[in-house]
Amino acid sequence: MEFDINNDGGLPNLLYYPYAWTKSASIIFLDAPVGTGFSYARAPEGWPTSDSSSAEQSYQFLRKWLDEHIEYLPVQLFIGGDSYSGITVPLVTQKVLVGIQNNVKPRMNLKGYLVGSPRTDSIIDENSKIVFAHRMALISDELYASAKNSCNENYVNVDPSNTQCVTALAAIEHCVKDLFSHDILEPKCTFDSPQASEGGRRSLQEHPKDFILSPPKITEYWCRTFIYALSYMWANDVRVQDALHVRKGTVLDWKRCNGSLSYTKDVLSVVDVHRNLSKAGLQVLVDR
């Protein structure tokens, strides 16, 4: 399904998407970690979580769900996620694999996993942005060489006293500041807000509910981030929540990105996890 942005008002319409994966697969969408989407904690002590604990919770959910729906046990199992889930997906997959090896019930029919634009390593991911900027000619050869030499090819947690490195990174940031970081070929969209910040413009991705919603009249200038605002309208509609059987009173304000999570990033790299999983004969799809 996809949103119809030509809706004149009220709840955004959904359009049929003929290439939906659900035509050929049964898909479980899990809101994780605790506090994302419509998920919630029943007690205060259940609110704080982390990479490792979230992976364990997702694994236990999968076990319990399959225990209650044993008819799905023969179905091929693929575990997937995108963006920051690139950390937790391989962790969950590894837990499933270990469970199979230890004959834990229910025995899952694990076939592989998939990650899209995944977070993988806190250092490698950040360092690669500078290399990417150079390869895409967003920064000059001279500026890249200056940063590479002065920063010793490490652009994370830079020593503030290394003025040459700090200066080079500031120049790089200036060169790319007007680009959409998720896709450099698309425009970086901002929209007028009734609750505008001092600069008069705010990020639609960060503050979707604060924006006046009116689809751009010129199709060529349509921005994918506009969907974030539409998704906020859709997910917070009472009729939608009733259809999804959301437990009333648990999530009063749905957010695409919940900045109030009590979350600890305790797994900084899953490179070794991927390396271990690559020996298990699983099918793997990595979509950049």
Helix content: 25-40%
Look at the structure and give the CATH class of the domain at 16-120 and 265-287: Alpha Beta
**What is the radius of gyration computed over CA atoms, rounded to a whole number of angstroms?**
22 Å
Helix and strand content put the structural class at alpha/beta
**Beta-strand percentage range:** 5-15%
The CATH architecture category of the domain at 16-120 and 265-287 equals 3-Layer(aba) Sandwich
Nearest-integer average pLDDT: 87
Strand segment count = 9
Order of helices and strands: EEEHEHEHHHEEHHEHE
Distinctive features:
alpha/beta, three-stranded parallel beta sheet, 11% strand, Rossmann fold, two-stranded antiparallel ribbon, 288 residues, single chain
Task: Describe, in plain words, how this protein is organized in 3D.
With 288 residues, the chain is of the alpha/beta class. It has a domain at 16-120 and 265-287: Alpha/Beta hydrolase fold, catalytic domain (Rossmann fold). The protein is 33% helix and 11% strand. The protein has 8 helices and 9 strands. It has a 3-stranded parallel β-sheet with strand order 4-5-9, with helices on one face. It is globular, with a radius of gyration of 22 Å.
SSE layout and pairing:
Blueprint: E1 2-4, E2 13-15, E3 49-50, H1 51-68, E4 77-82, H2 85-101, E5 110-116, H3 122-135, H4 141-150, H5 163-176, E6 190-191, E7 202-203, H6 226-235, H7 238-243, E8 263-264, H8 271-277, E9 283-287
Parallel strand pairs: 3-8, 4-5, 5-9
Antiparallel strand pairs: 1-2, 6-7
Helix pairs in contact: 1-2, 2-8, 4-5
